[in-house]
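ARCHIVE RECORD
Type: protein–small molecule complex
Small molecule: zinc ion
Source of inputs: curated submission
Record status: active
Notes field left blank by submitter.
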Amino acid sequence: MKFYMPVLVYQEENVIWNHREELRQYGKKALVVTGRHSSKVNGSQKDLEAALDDQGIKYVFFSEIEENPSMETAEKAAEYGKQEGVDFVIGMGGGSAMDASKAIALLIKNPEETKEVFYQNKPLLALPVIAIPTTAGTGSEVTPYAILTIHEKRTKKSISHRIFPKMALLDSKYLSYAGEKITKNTYADILGHLVESFLHAKSDSYNRMCSSYGMKLWSKLCQPVASMEMTKEDYARLSETGMIAGMAITHTGTSLPHGMSYALTYEYQIPHGKAVGIFLPFFLAIYEDQEAVNEVLSYLDFGSVEEVSEYMKSLLGKVEVSHEDRERFFHSFAADTARHKAYPYSIGEKQLREMYEDALSVR
Ligand code: NAP
Ligand code: ZN
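STRUCTURE (tokenized, with ligand):
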């Protein structure tokens, strides 16, 4: 067994300001990678500028990261970072900005490479990455994964390189600026990480330690998230839960619901967490070891898989996909056997087809 978690994590109010001096060790100039709007609205951009100015660290912004960032956007940002001669990269925002910052840090450190290197198995280093999450969902601030959109293949995939942030700065005050949809979708993503890690082929007692603790935290938020009546403490707990779930998948990876979600996000523009959450109850229903499922249910404080299903439906709504597209997604995923390895048992075509039918047809 192995437990490896090399990210220095701080979670507290005013975290960026409190730890500003520690940023100096990563260099004199930073590339700050964000989405287009949210960091300007939720206060994170202002907080970071104040901290960097105070420390005399120069910085430039690349604020064009789209949801489900593409290889092309990462390459464009890296070109800018190279021109500007930056020493480190700060990814601030949701999973999209943080994931992109890892891929960008890889290309800046290896200026002779192009975006094709993302999916090549070469032992390469990256510039240091600092992660500042403003959603609680992906856990990207503590994982070594960076998921990019590959337009040529009409899907999303984790890059081949494993890049842990050096430091993660979590301040849950930013989370309260996210609206209902973003909060609920990212909350569903957390559950995906916790459950898929717990029931993963690589699962052992180390990741289960993170998953079981995370599921207990998650269950305490079911009501506040459903009603969107969240206290400051709830937001802090949400932030912690997302991060712990990230630690769980760091040790295993994700499983079938994540693998199945990517086509749905690409073809139907369904946000990541929602696309995962739609499949989750059906994953629990077909999972071979129902004793393990019962253990999951007990941590989550749900009485049955049907209860999970009802809750997720009320949280996320439904997604309807045409019969032709369901068949297309099913055939493509059934052929992608590399993605099935996360499932500890042999997975039959009948079960897979059932998952697509049950999750994506409205009855
Ligand atoms: P996201 O795609 O990063 O962001 C979704 C939306 O939320 C964007 O419009 C963003 O606006 C906005 N937003 C972010 N923070 C906000 C805040 N505090 N207040 C208001 N709006 C805010 O969503 P995400 O679910 O966090 O990340 C999803 C991505 O992460 C996917 O690409 C997924 O594949 C990946 N992922 C990675 C891992 C991993 O281990 N690395 C794990 C799971 C998922 P702006 O664009 O204006 O910033
Ligand atoms: Zn996810």
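CURATOR ANNOTATION: The pocket of NAP (ligand 1) is lined by residues 34-39, 42, 67-68, 93-97, 99, 134-135, 137-140, 143, 145-147, 156, 174-175, 177-178, 182, 186, 189, 272-273 (CB under 6 Å).
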